[in-house]
């Protein structure tokens, strides 16, 4: 039945009769048969259809009856709408006519109102003028009564009346009279204000403050408050001189040299503590005495105090830095005097000078943090001005930081002794070389430590704001140090027997060089043991170059990381936004309009960067560049490190090849090549030809060279976990020397003018020996050398055929040269 009463399904556009019948059959009672259920369902559908038809017919009839009535209503509504439209049109026409007359009326009313306002203003002005005249006449009586609040009120009314009447000539005298009276009242207030401030009379101070405000002289209150409270602070500051003088007289009277006079460094913390305690008391008292002004009044007191003591503060800092070094203490001079040149020639800036300066700056930093906490309720601009004043004595030193650091590092670098060993004569060059190389290698980590200490000093003293100057100083100092290394390296060439005149690279070999002959004479006087000690010492120079390259690279990476930290620190903790945005908010006059990320982030670095926008831009450009992976923090030093490595390689190569060059220097002119064989009547047995001493000496040297390079490989692998790379490094040097020896030998072979058959046989044996040595060293035999060997070992009469038959395996220019020196004519 539920399905029958739900007619929505029949209205569905997707109605399916089969599905509906199946659903109806499924909803039947299990005991009912399908036929009966369908019959009942058909009957119900027919009855409902008849009911719907009857209802539809009834409603249609009723609708037909209502249509005429609705038509009449529509006609009546249409007539009413036409009538209403006509009425509204008439009203609009009347409104338009009324609008024109109303605008004229409103304009007339506005003019009347303006006249009324002017009349009222004139009336009030006349009243003020009359009142001004009356006040001017009675003001003296008010002053005579001694009632200061009433006098202030009278003067305030006079000022108001004068502003109302404007610049009227008749009242010019009264205007001058008013200024005189205000000065007079201020003078009357000042003694009472001084007494009230000195005796802490809160109510009196408040009343006098109101009087000064009424006459527009609040600045007088600030100046008077500052003047009175500045005296105790200046007295605290001057206490150092009195205590120091008293202690000096005591030491003099007792003649006790062990007792030291009070130093500024030990006295300054107590001064800061006393000043802080005084300011805390003033802050607390001013909270009740000046509830509207204490947030700026007490900071103003500290600012004025720091301005007053600033010149002597700077002087005391200078003398304090000088007291830590005997040289400057004896002359009563300091670090500023050294930088200005007001010292004997040779005076230097020591690390102790700068360490004392940093210590004093840190003391001031602790005081500044306490002040920042005490004045935390003050406005940001007031707090900025206060901290500027607190740090102001150090600004002249920070501006000279680059000069100080450069002077310190320069003197420290100059003090490093790279040639501590005594110059020794023949037979002891190896000891001198070893000692010098050891000093060079040990100096590298010392220099890096000095540079790292300079970076720490820059951060500690300037907060990183002088990083750009530090980078320039470090680069110059590294150049100075590497120049010292290079000069030492040049001097070692003479120790090694390879001075500058005999520098011949692997590809530049000559037959007759003055330097070569000189070195040959030198090496003739040196024992084999001394030669090997020189070789070992020269090889150790490679570790110097490797150490310099690696240490300087690591230091540069650390420097870049430091610059990255500074960039983050300045951008986040100081400014709270991007650096470019902050720079755009810095005024040309140096004043800052920055929104810092909370007052807790204020420090000296922030203040300095705000005060010097041009320097800020330079620093930020450096910090931005440091983010580039290709950035070199020490660009000039990096280039010089590479140049030093090249110089070391040249020296080591010249040392390793010098013995070869000496043994091969006269090979082309040996008489054995062109010696004429003595004829004998009897037949002599043929003997095997043995290589000569010059080539066996070279071969033994090359075969022994891997043993000399092995300590170098072990030394590199001890610091480098990549042992294969270290072994490759040593092998590369062995191949380089072997290639150089081969090149020298082939150059000598090309210089031979004539060779006999016996000479060719001997030379062939020499070449074969050297080829065997190269093969033992796993080196390929150059085609030129193999061509020399082939054409020297072949009988003269077979050379033309050999030249024609084995062209692909030969170096033709060399083959023709051998034929020429053997006097064999080749048919073209």
TrEMBL record:
GO cellular component labels: Golgi membrane; Golgi transport complex
Keyword Coiled coil in record: yes
Q: Which UniProt keywords apply?
A: Coiled coil, Golgi apparatus, Membrane, Protein transport, Transport
In the bilayer, the protein is annotated as: Peripheral membrane protein
Residues forming coiled coils: 31-58
Grouped into one coarse class, the protein's main location is Golgi
Q: Which InterPro entries match?
A: COG7
Where found in the cell? Golgi apparatus membrane
Task: Mark the transmembrane ranges.
Answer: none
Q: Name one Pfam family in it.
A: COG7
Report any one BP term from Gene Ontology. Golgi organization
Identify its protein family: Belongs to the COG7 family.
Tell me what this protein is called.
Conserved oligomeric Golgi complex subunit 7
Organism, by scientific name, is Stephania japonica
């Amino acid at each position: 039945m539920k399905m029958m009463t739900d007619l929505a399904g029949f209205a569905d556009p997707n109605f399916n009769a089969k599905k509906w019948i199946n659903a109806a059959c499924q909803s039947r009672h299990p005991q009912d048969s399908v036929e009966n259920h369908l019959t009942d369902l058909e009957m119900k559908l027919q009855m409902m259809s008849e009911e719907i038809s009857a209802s539809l017919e009834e409603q249609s009839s009723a609708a037909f009856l209502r249509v005429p009535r609705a038509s009449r209503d529509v006609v009546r509504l249409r007539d009413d709408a036409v009538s209403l439209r006509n009425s509204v049109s008439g009203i609009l026409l009347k409104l338009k006519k009324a609008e024109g007359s109303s605008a004229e009326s409103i304009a007339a009313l506005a003019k009347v109102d303006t006249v009324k306002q002017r009349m009222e203003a004139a009336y009030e002005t006349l009243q003020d003028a009359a009142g001004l005249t009356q006040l001017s006449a009675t003001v003296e009586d008010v002053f005579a009564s001694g009632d200061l609040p009433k006098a202030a009120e009278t003067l305030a009314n006079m000022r108001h009346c004068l502003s109302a009447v404007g610049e009227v000539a008749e009242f010019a005298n009264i205007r001058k009279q008013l200024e005189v009276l205000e000065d007079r009242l201020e003078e009357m207030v000042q003694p009472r204000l001084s007494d009230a401030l000195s005796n802490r009379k809160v109510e009196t101070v408040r009343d006098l403050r109101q009087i000064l405000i009424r006459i527009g002289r609040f600045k007088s209150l600030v100046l008077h408050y500052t003047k009175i409270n500045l005296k105790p602070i200046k007295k605290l500051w001057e206490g150092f001189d009195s205590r120091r003088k008293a202690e000096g007289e005591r030491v003099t009277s007792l003649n006790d040299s062990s007792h030291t006079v009070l130093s500024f460094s030990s006295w300054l913390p107590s001064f800061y503590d006393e000043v802080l305690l005084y300011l805390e008391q003033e802050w607390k008292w001013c909270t009740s005495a000046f509830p509207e002004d204490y947030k700026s009044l007490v900071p103003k007191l500290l600012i004025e105090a720091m301005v007053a003591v600033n010149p002597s503060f700077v002087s005391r800092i200078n003398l304090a830095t000088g007291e830590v070094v005997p040289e400057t203490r004896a002359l009563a001079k300091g670090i500023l005097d050294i930088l200005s040149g007001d010292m004997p020639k040779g005076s230097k800036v020591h690390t102790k000078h700068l360490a004392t300066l940093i210590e004093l700056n840190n003391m001031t930093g602790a005081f500044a943090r306490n002040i920042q906490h005490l004045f935390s309720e003050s406005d940001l601009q007031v707090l900025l001005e206060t901290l500027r004043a607190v740090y102001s004595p150090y600004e002249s030193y920070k501006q000279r930081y680059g000069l100080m650091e450069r002077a310190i590092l320069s003197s420290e670098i100059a003090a490093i002794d790279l040639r501590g060993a005594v110059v020794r004569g023949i037979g002891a060059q190896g000891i001198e070389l070893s000692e010098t190389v050891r000093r060079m290698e040990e100096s590298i980590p010392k220099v890096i430590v000095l540079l790292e200490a300079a970076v720490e000093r820059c951060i500690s003293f300037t907060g990183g704001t002088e990083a750009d100057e530090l980078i320039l100083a470090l680069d110059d100092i590294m150049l100075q140090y590497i120049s010292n290394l290079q000069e030492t390296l040049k001097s070692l060439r003479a120790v090694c027997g390879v001075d500058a005149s005999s520098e011949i690279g692997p590809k530049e070999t000559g037959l007759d060089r003055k330097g070569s002959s000189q070195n040959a004479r030198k090496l003739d006087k040196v024992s084999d043991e001394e030669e090997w000690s020189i070789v070992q010492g020269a090889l150790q120079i490679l570790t110097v170059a490797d150490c310099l390259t690696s240490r300087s690279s690591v230091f540069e990476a650390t420097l870049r990381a430091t610059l990255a930290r500074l960039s983050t620190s300045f951008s986040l903790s100081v400014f709270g936004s991007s650096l470019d945005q902050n720079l755009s908010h810095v005024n040309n006059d140096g004043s800052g309009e920055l929104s810092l990320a909370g007052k807790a982030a204020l420090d000296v670095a922030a203040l300095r960067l705000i005060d010097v926008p041009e320097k800020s831009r330079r620093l930020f450009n450096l910090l931005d560049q440091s983010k580039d992976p290709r950035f070199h923090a020490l660009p000039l030093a990096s280039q010089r490190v590479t140049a030093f490595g090249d110089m070391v390689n040249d020296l080591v190569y010249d040392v390793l090849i010098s013995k070869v060059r000496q043994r091969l220097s006269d090979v082309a002119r040996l008489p054995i090549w062109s010696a004429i064989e003595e004829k004998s009547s009897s037949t002599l047995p043929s003997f095997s030809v043995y290589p000569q001493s010059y080539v066996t000496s070279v071969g033994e040297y090359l075969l022994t060279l891997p043993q000399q390079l092995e300590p170098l490989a072990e030394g590199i692998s001890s610091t480098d976990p990549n042992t294969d790379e270290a072994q490759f490094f040593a092998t590369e040097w062995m191949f380089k020397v072997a290639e150089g020896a081969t090149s020298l030998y082939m150059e000598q072979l090309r210089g031979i003018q004539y060779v006999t058959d016996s000479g060719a046989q001997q030379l062939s044996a020499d070449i074969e020996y050297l080829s065997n040595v190269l093969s033992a060293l796993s080196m390929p035999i150059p085609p030129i050398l193999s061509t020399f060997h082939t054409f020297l070992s072949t009988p003269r009469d077979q050379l033309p055929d050999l030249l024609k038959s084995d062209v692909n395996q030969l170096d033709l220019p060399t083959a023709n040269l051998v034929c020429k020196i053997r006097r064999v004519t080749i048919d073209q």
